[in-house]
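User: I'm putting together notes for a lab meeting next week and I want to include a structural view of one of the chains we've been expressing. I don't have a solved structure, so I'd like a prediction I can at least talk through. The sequence is below, exactly as it appears in our construct file.
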Amino acid sequence: MITTSINTNFPPALLLSMSRTTLLLLLFSFGAYAQPKISWPHHKKAVIVLTYDDGIKSQLDNAVPLLDSLHFKATFFLIGDVLDYNSILKWRAVAKKGHELANHTMYHPCVDKDNPVGSQNYTPASILREIETTNYFLFALDGKTTHSYAYPCTETSVGGDYYVDSLRKSGAVSYARVGGDQGDAVITDFKWLDPMLVPSYGVDAGTSGDQLIAFVKKVEQGGGMGVFMFHGIGGDWIITSPRAHRELLEYLAHDKNIWVATFSEAMDYIGQANKIK
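Assistant: Thanks for the context. Below is the predicted structure for the 277-residue chain, given as structure tokens.
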């Protein structure tokens, strides 16, 4: 059962001057705008989603072994053109362990000057074709016909055109993750959460373990969901140190109030919870 508390704090003189009907309407209005909280599985208070972008070597070397040792499942958004034969076999093994492999396009197009493929040369139609092609590639790795998505460089436009609505209509992906920071990545309003625009905390290079844990505490305090966006773990680019990464995961392992889930697992649960309210 979902309950909400209403703090009126109205002056007594004002309450006395109100008619009973007016007061009831005002209280109902407060209740209507309150955000009901989702009851998480296993009596947990919040959910944390660990996501890793680009399918890079440091994730295979440093992130996956630690995740496995702590029995956590994470989501890895893969890019097709950074993989070789050996890493393809390794990512296939990662999928067999229960981690989620997800879509980050084949060529990671964005307007960043250091990016080899520019999104300014794309159209919504061409990015959708690339996303669909990547789905076939992922199917060859994990045997799944449905995948989630992360916008390259967190850009929701290509060639100057917004493509979120086209992506939504295409049905090519189940859910899509965008970027953000600690301030706007604590998700508590699930009624209005757009499954094609799920915010995340984009972890900057050099972020400490204490900073990562502080985000978890904010999520737990709000009873909501927090999605981490990592890149390199001890190598490659936008590097989080192995120490900071380990401190976060060990904290999650000891905090029994946190449900650690894959991106699609958490979003599936939220969708079902919204249906039954």
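A couple of points you could mention at the meeting. The chain has one domain: 36-275. The mean pLDDT is 88.

User: Perfect, that's what I needed.
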